[in-house]
Amino acid sequence: MYNANSKQQTANSKQPINVHFNTQAIFVLCGFKTYETEIIRRLLTYSAINVDVSYVSRKTHDVSDAGFPVKQIRIPTCMAFYVAWHFNLKSAVGFVLNRLGRIFSFNFITGGGKNDVYVFTENNMPTMRIEGKTVVVIHDIIPLRMSYDPSRKSPDSVGKYTGKIVARNTEDVLKRASCIITDSDFSRRDIADYYHIDPERIKVVYCGIDPSVYARKYDLQVIREQYNLPNKYVLYFGACSARKNVETLIRAYSKLSESLRREYKLVITNPLIDTTDCVNNCGISEYVHYIKAIPEADKPAIYQMASVSAWPSLYEGFGLPVLEAMASGVPVICSNVTSMPEVAGDAAILVDPLDASGMAREIERVLTDSELRKDLIAKGYENIKRFSWDESAKKLHDIIVNL
User: Fold this and answer.
1) pLDDT tens readout for residues 207-220
2) Is the pTM higher than 0.70?
3) Which of 55, 162, 269, 304 is the Cys-Cys partner for 143 at CB 3.0 to 4.6 Å?
């Protein structure tokens, strides 16, 4: 466990390196935010580096839960980052502001020096000139691999123009960054394959998990009543965009026997219109319970009460919910594609994410075989030992000081 009040001693006796973290996701509830906050909190304890954190925005955001000071740079985001591709008045103004922003260096607006290190963890780096060494985390290239489906009624993270923006930003990063980091060996190979570059140019720093957070004791009955949760349930915890493939899970659940559905309800977080439509079309609305936004503080309790956690995603650069469920003592069923086998190891049942019948068989097997459940839970606890935020922060620290 790290101690934010004391600096870790290192063998490096040189003057500490100034490290500037740009964090555009610190005020958004997503995996990027988790990565940033967990890594930065630990890097603050190292004596070989001096870390400051900032974000670029005209809007003021609540960053009080970050656990460290965050400085706001009050300029339009589009002056520093290229965020639009299609043509309309807003994007045209953004284009002009972006070009004006290039008059300045990122050092100028952050107060950083030419010998400092600048770290960006949201898949892109500023279009402004940066005089210093740069470290960029490319978590994944999902918008480049996933197709846009205009038939979906719900908004989707993989939008019509998003792929073009990500392609442009990623190509820029690969040309300009001093060091490129990603979350998994799968993503390292995927980025290298897409852009035809040597995968050795990309370093892997895994995401982590803090087991103590998910082992915390809760008054589960209070949480159950607060969210009106059933006594037993199959849990899907995450967003419901097309990539997350929740509709296949719904169809799989609908194939369970009625007696099993009565005993084990399906709990889905953050439902969208397509999600509820699929449930209604399958005729299982009486067995499905929806939860909207859940505070981070309540997340472990929601996991702990689940009978099984199902994660049927089509594409992940890492897949933190797999580890979160394991750390909560819940058996996991997840997809057998992209990074998920790498993260899950032998501690989860891996399924074809497009095979609803096969997914249904495995859900039934976990729900009805107590020995299998015990085995998966035990393997889950062992598997999460491979992933530590302390180790991830140390690896990033070593990369920075050796640039």
Assistant:
1) 999 999 999 999 99
2) yes
3) 162
